Amino acid sequence: xxxxxWSDAFRTGFASxxxxxxxxxxxxNRLHAAIGQQNAAAxxxxxxxxxxxxxxxxxxxxxxxxxxxxxGYAAHKADHERLLDEIRTIMxxxxxxxxxxxxxxxxxxxxxxxxxxFQTEDAKLxxxxxxx
Length: 132
Hints:
By secondary structure, this protein is an all-alpha fold.
């Protein structure tokens, strides 16, 4: 069972951003499946992959915001940093404690990360910036 289903509501009109959002949803769903299987090694790998993919995606969004003079750049970038810090904290927790405990605490947080950021900061960004 998927955690998040891709829908047209996630489309921004920027092909590169839409592609990366779809890839992030796929990765979150694969991580969710590993959590369901209680596979600590796979969860650790997916957390690393998720961090790297999100960092790259945020770099794309920040480049887009900067090149277009987006007024909300500082707040949006700060939310990116907060999300990356949260993922790093979870990775550290996973490494330092019983993986099963971290796995169970991670499950309810996954969709919230994506949806909260997408529905707040990304929604503001995409309402102001229009694709070329």
